[in-house]
Amino acid sequence: MGRACGLAALGLALLAVSPAASASDSQAAPTPDLVLASAQKARRAPAKAEQDTRRYAGQAAAQALAAEIAQRRGWEQDWVEHWIGQAQQLPSVMRLIAPAQPGMAKNWAAYRARFVEPVRIEAGLRFWQAQRETLARAEASYGVPAWLIVGIIGVETLYGRHTGNYRVLDALATLSLDFPDSHPRAAERQAYFRGELETLLQLSREQGVSPDAWRGSYAGAMGLPQFMPSSWTRYAVDFDGDGRIDLRNSAADAIGSVANYMQQHGWQSGMPTHYPVRLEASGTDLATLLAPDIKPSFDAARFQALGAKLAPPASEHAGPLALVELRNGDPLQGGSPPSHVAGTENFYVVTRYNWSSYYALAVIELGQAVQAALDGPSATR
């Protein structure tokens, strides 16, 4: 989802909510593990006219929000009120933002198969070959490996093929003014999207773009890297040197911006993202290992003492580690046992783009698969 993004804020939402993310600063508001696939499906399909849409013009809540934004920013209230009033409520956005239904088991194998597959790898190979010099320059400038940048853009938008057809003004106004009350974090998420709507108006003024011209995901993530408006203003860079930042049409700007996003969130050059791990058949203290979630919290010695065994070089890793668990469906309904990896601080950094360990590992494995194809004997150079 960008959650930059993003796909990133949704819970993507909020598997996308791409930058973003999500959101934290992450692009999108981050995205719930199970929602990314449906979020990207929604991005791919052109937004169809919705029968129940209505404009926000004249609504008291919209006018109050416009007055608040105008006062805080020192903008003309009529201008803000006009554009928020032009936004349409999108029922489909309200449905897509809803949390996954209870009982839907996460499945890493199925999730991985959506992104680490021949079509996406081939598209990534062509993207890398076309952008070889730009990717090398980004890696040299920011210390972020080209394969990771390629993996992120590939998962987010299939290298620009699916950047979203929702009017971002409509999507963000809907999530700012009609965020579903049934969502467990409704107040927090609504406040987040109000900030993103305000930033979209700021971006429009700065770039001389009409606020209704932006297109993106149902959560408001835009461009090749699916940056949310706030990630665009914080982390996007003019990497092609043409004097403007264009994440919608400039692959170079997207590449440099993803690299800058990762660097700003703490990427450490040369550190692996994760290592294989073997759990002891008995004696593994899963409760303790999983308590910090994916936040690296254990040194290698403590990690192994709790029953998560590592082989060199993982056993000699100097920084903290986290046990990352990825479920493979419900074992009681034909699913397989969970998969596990030992995540480093760099793995955690990838989850700042989208708050999902499933997303992070898919990005990593896609990027590495594309690099393997590039380096392979059959690759066209």
What does this structure look like?
InterPro entries: Lysozyme-like_dom_sf, Lytic_transglycosylase_MltB, MltB-like, SLT_2. It holds the Pfam family SLT_2. Keywords: Signal. This is Lytic murein transglycosylase B. Helices cover 45% and strands 7% of the residues. The longest helix is centred in the middle third of the chain and has 22 residues. The protein has a domain of 70 residues. The chain has 381 residues and is mostly helical. The chain has a three-stranded antiparallel sheet. Strands 1-2 form a two-stranded antiparallel sheet. The protein is globular and about 65 Å long. Helix 6 crosses helix 8, helix 6 packs across helix 16 and helix 8 packs across helix 16.
Topology of helices and strands:
Elements: H1 35-44, H2 60-73, H3 77-86, H4 91-96, H5 108-115, H6 118-130, H7 132-142, H8 146-157, E1 166-167, H9 168-177, H10 186-207, E2 215-216, H11 229-235, H12 251-264, E3 274-276, E4 278-279, H13 286-290, H14 300-305, E5 308-309, E6 322-328, E7 336-343, H15 345-350, H16 357-375
Antiparallel strand pairs: 1-2, 3-7, 4-5, 6-7
